[in-house]
Amino acid sequence: MSERVTPSAEAARALRDIDQRRDQARASEQESRWVGVVFGVAIFAELSAPDFFGDGVRSGISMAVAALAVAYVVLLRTPRGGALLGRPTRLRRDEFSPRFVRLARLTILAVMLIGFFGASYLPHEPFPYTGTVVGAVLGATLILFGRNLQRALNSLALRGTGKDSLGGATYGSR
User: Fold this and answer.
1) pTM for the full model?
2) What pLDDT digit, counting tens, does each position of 68-88 carry?
3) What is the dihedral of CA 134, 140, 146, 147, to 10 degrees?
């Protein structure tokens, strides 16, 4: 004889399934290791190339890095490209905390303004091979810690969205 399922048990199971799928989607929102390696090498190449080949290569290497960034964004917009980059799913915009999005945009704006206006006040190169050292540190940081940094940012972005609560009580708790 089959057990009879109550509507509340069915609803609780459905909510648990929804939470499980949401957690799976959030967990898959992470780049493949090779993407971090490619961008880490690109950062190193862009910053160190002028030290080894002269200032004439700045425009060429900058164009190559810009083309790489554009290709990355285009690939993220397609399902096959996202899967190639290790992101089989994309989170909806409403999954992200509005507070985090606002803070991230202000941080990016501040970094851009510092870069535009602060660069004119900094010495050109305080010591020989400055670009190589900075490129090596930034590239290695991205290669070695990129996935952990991305996981931490995703955790901050998805925290406090109110998606896990319904009137103050959580559903689908484990």
Assistant:
1) 0.65
2) 999 988 888 888 888 888 776
3) -170
